[in-house]
Amino acid sequence: MVGIRPTSRKNVALSAPTRVSKLLWFAFFVGLGLPACADAASAPLAPARFKEGIGPLAKERCDGCHERMPGGAMSVYRNARARVTPGDPGASPYYTVPMGGGHPVSWGDSASAVHAWIEAGAPE
Fold it and tell me: What is the pLDDT of residue 42?
């Protein structure tokens, strides 16, 4: 066996400074990913579409009175859409009227979902 020489094995244990530096690099790279995870967890949910989110909410909270009124049930998209200015919740009676003005506070804890739906253009 020409050209091949057996090598002696040295102690492969890492020295303390090498272990520390590897741990620091590991922590650094893991830390780079954490802000992205935190942002994803705290990001608002995508706005609901009317049929799956807003309509059932309106049926539960509004239609007890509105289905008997001239404007019709608020759980019907065309009736709701007539009271929405897409992209502008502040100019949309569908959002602003239930928030006060002698009207029951219908949206309650779901007001942000209705707000996001209108901001997204009030998709059906």
Answer: 45
Question: Which residues of the chain register pLDDT less than 70?
Answer: 1-47, 99-105
Place of tokens 């003005």: 101
32 token code pair:
């780079």
Residue the block writes with tokens 């009227």: 97
Half-sphere exposure of 123 (CA within 13 A, CB side): 10
Which pTM was predicted? 0.60
Rounded distance, CA 59 to CA 77, Å? 11
Q: What angle do CA 84, 87, 93 make, to 5 degrees?
A: 25
Tell me the CA distances in angstroms from 2 to 6, 20, 49, one per residue in order: 11, 41, 76
Q: Residue 26 to residues 14, 22, 32, 33: CA-CA distances in angstroms?
A: 16, 6, 10, 11
Token couple for 51 = 């049929």
How confident is the model at residue 111, as a pLDDT?
87
